[in-house]
Amino acid sequence: MAESIIIQILDSWSKRYFFDPILLLSEILSLLICLKYYRKTLLHTVFIGCITVYLSGYILIQIVSINTFISSPLHRKIIRLSVNNVIILAEFFTYYFFFKKALTSRLIKKILLLPGALILTTITIIQYFTIINQTTYYDEFSFFVNAFEFFILLATSLRYFFELTKQALNLWPTKSPSFIISSGLLIYISVSLPFMCIGNYFLTVNKNIHLLLSLIHYLSLIILLISISKAFKLKKNLEE
Fold first, then answer.
1. N or C: which end of the chain has fewer CB within 10 A?
2. Cβ contacts of 8 within 8 Å, gap of 6 or more
């Protein structure tokens, strides 16, 4: 049985050019670095929670992909959808709290509450009907919410850099945790948007394009994790 599981895992990884173990290792290393340089602040705690969600969700999806544990394709899809929904919420509210500290505009901070409430409500409804009806019919809606989340975070990131141009810099950008995290986030969002917007479409139309988009998404997530880890190592408040 153990040999069968290992073969399934390696076969799955080989189809994605072994990006999966690279991402897994990146998430583990990022979490360990953040725990080592952890400071007792809300943002440090929230970011560690977000990385933990990334890692836990990734491991769960890998387990689900092994037919030995869950044979039903429907149940595997439902679990993947549920994991994606949890990641959407963890990701958005992590950066909501981050930009609430890093941005200076009170109006923008208040406006961010609206898409946050909309995302939370929509994901809750999707998750409820997915579990009650035992269907993956709402899978596409989850991708739409994910794309919407990314557009909001993209706009917020650009707002951060706009504000940065209007301020007198107290720190050199490479020494600023907020600049490093925002830069990593901007790369992650910009590069991953095509996957979030059209990735689900190409899953049925052209799997090679879907694979390419997903690998690029993985690579951008690794860059984001490196940025967060680097910001933690500076031993400063993350909003600085």
1. N
2. 65, 66, 67, 68
